[in-house]
Amino acid sequence: MLRRSLIAVPILAATVAACSAGSADDTHEDLADRQSAVAPPCATPLAEIDGVWSFSNGACQGSGACSCAGSSPSGALRYQCVELVQRYFHEVFGFAELWPVSTASQMCDAGRHPPGTTVHWLGDGYVPRRGDAAVWTGDGNHAAIVVSSFDGGIEVVEQNASPEGRRTFWGDPFGGYFASSGTTPRCFVTAGGSAAAAPAAQCDALGYAGGCFGEVAVWSEGECRVRDCAAESTACGWVSEEVGFGCLGAAPGQNTFDCASVGYQGACLGDTLVWAESSTCQVFHCASDGRRCDWDGDNGYNCVW
């Protein structure tokens, strides 16, 4: 059993995790273009996705192991591309701050990405989703976070790459996605196996785009809104840029309620716990921690063994 005050992981936490994780490698995707670009000063915020920012690597921009801001407490190199991906997966999905990788190109290898994530390789028809890690392997060494997919390409947020921290790559899930360098991400790491199955979050930090917690969609719309997709015999996933995360293939507005209505006692929607605490609605996918959602006798509904 876990006290509820200890299980919520705020989306906007400032924790920083470790396209190198700590070893020299100058084979980054688009390296020549990056080094020729004038990078903003070290630690300048560049671009944001889901409350997580990419930062400039300053004079080290484009380097394989150089860090303009030294190492974070966890040992990550600020601000390499790997650091952004690990920090995003930690702050948004609750995974470990560091992956067992020394370069970005290893992030899709077996045993290198966190348990609970799934790898899709270029050519299998998988369409990248918001929150996926795009990884360049073989002919490149870079990683970025997918902001969106559209007919003809993807947009990413990145570090240690473009001076703007955001780029568009053109292509498709079979032939690849290309910018000026002629290389393409070879694989995509997605959290939870189907869309973004975040373990925990405060509702307000999710914004209107929201997130998936198991098969429960949660988003902020003036108030915290909760929708149980499994109760509608559908799955939670990324619907569109306009909608964000929601119940796939379902009619709008079905089976939706205000999180505050369940109070501190909370409610179990399958293995997803939803409750209100200190005027903040919170949600936790108990199964992501190997637990189940049930009544615990002390806190109301909770994640229990």
Description of the molecule:
- It is a single chain.
- The chain has 305 residues and is mostly beta strands.
- Helices cover 8% and strands 32% of the residues.
- Mean pLDDT is 81; it is low at 1-18, 23-36 and 193-199.
Summarize the structure.
By secondary structure, the chain is mainly beta. Helices cover 8% and strands 32% of the residues. The longest helix has 13 residues, at 81-93.
Q: What are the main properties of this structure?
A:
disordered N terminus, endopeptidase fold (from Nostoc punctiforme), mainly beta, 305 residues, four-stranded antiparallel beta sheet, globular, 32% strand, seven-stranded antiparallel beta sheet, 2 domains, 3 helices
What is the element layout, followed by pairings?
Blueprint: H1 31-36, E1 45-49, E2 52-55, H2 81-93, E3 117-121, E4 133-136, E5 142-150, E6 153-157, E7 166-172, E8 176-178, E9 187-191, E10 200-202, H3 203-206, E11 211-213, E12 216-220, E13 224-228, E14 236-240, E15 244-247, E16 256-258, E17 267-269, E18 272-277, E19 280-285, E20 292-295, E21 301-304
Antiparallel strand pairs: 1-2, 3-9, 4-5, 4-9, 5-6, 6-7, 7-8, 10-19, 11-12, 12-13, 13-16, 14-15, 17-18, 18-19, 20-21
